[in-house]
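Hi P.,

Sorry for the delay on this. The queue was packed all week, but I finally got your sequence through. Input first:
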Amino acid sequence: MANNQPSTSQSPSVNYDSTTKVTDVNIDSLVHCTNSLSLQDISNMAVSCKFLNQLAYSDSIWRRLFRERWPQLEPYKISQTSGVREAYLSRYTALKQFKFADPLVYDVHMEAKSCDLLLSKNYIYVSQGPRVQIMSIDKLLEGTTSIVSSLNDHRARITSMRLFPLKETSLFRNAAQINENVLVTSSCDHSIRLWWKGSFHRSFRGHNGPVTVLSDKLLGDGNGKVFASGGEDSTVRLWSLSSSGKNGQRALKATLYGHEKPIVLLSVTGHKESFLVSMSKDSKVRVWDVSVSSSSDRKSSCVGTTSVVGVPVGIKCHNSLIYIAAGSTIEAVDLRTMKTSFRTSTKNQGKLYSFDINPSKFLACAGGHGRAMLWDIRKITDTGEGDPMAELDGHIGPVTHLHMDPYKIVTGGREDPQVNIWEADNGNQTNVLSCTKDESGCSAMAVDGFRIVTAGYNQDLRFRDFSNAVSSVSFDDESFDDEVTGLKFWCPSNSGDDANLSD
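Then the structure:
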């Protein structure tokens, strides 16, 4: 008998051609899907394709991002051609440039004068002689005791503090998954110490004298990363951050000889992860290849030398260039040839006291006496001719403290009770801040994004956070009016209704 029942072993045919592309989805539905995306996710989406790039410019997306970041404010359009995205980016830039008169301000009286400051994430690190105080910013804002740790193991003055990402080390089995920093300090007691979570973790010993400076970054790649130290014994030493050896034993990987005077500056190059630049007190510069230094052929670890004239002020590395400030001169040396690419003299402005660069915008800034000078590196000729694009005047005494990032320049001095804020692109002044409440000179300064902390010679600290400021700065000088009052592209929110914003 024939079986007329349909076979259950056969699966129904599927038409694989009837697929739905992301470009077929309704634009409002796609905008709604972005509600769970962060700003970084939106940025990544914008560079994925032209269709999603246009979607990423939607006012609805940026209105949501604006309200999440600044819930007390609502943006409005300046003109028919600008939207909420422009308002978000403009306000973000203005906050980074400290163009406001009402940041959160907190004053802290310390037990001793500050030698150096670090500001990172939720913590302020303050070195005071042989001690480091770690302050919690959250506790500071709550008005409670802000000092969470006091590190007292050093026996002499601390000379340098550095924060290295824990995930770039192999200190612990799961270190690569921990998004925190370890603190490394050097001291005149001939030692280097590593701290984590406010506790002493490891000591590094080997220098035959005070340790003067630490490298600004880790060197190498993978689990073989090291940091470098320089000392008054004229040596550069390389230390492993691996977990082998108790209390830092076997951590010393190499000792680099060649300098004849104490080491004063160290910087890791951007040209190669294994290249380190050191500068000694006699302004001699040496370039080391750490990958060779860790091998048996240590004589070839020095891959380049040069020298400059004048007292060392600063070294900054970017890609294959070393920017060196010494005496009254700034010059750039090409790592590949060890030849000077350009040199500029500041003899008319006197000797230099501080130095920083913004290599992505080809800008260099140096602090002199009573002013800082801003250069466009591209306009400096081979003969060293070329005036600064801006002179940042108004300081008292030497400009000994200088910070530069893509948004702003911050300058201050040990004799000056105020720090000055300038736009990084053009040197226009955006703000003037008192160092401490009783306006003593600035002994130390640290800047991190929207925040700044300054220390005075009176044992006081002043912390400012501009991330939610509203009131724009107003200068009496008419030359600042267009710069400052033009920033009013937001207004306080009177209602949570979306009708206050047009799409």
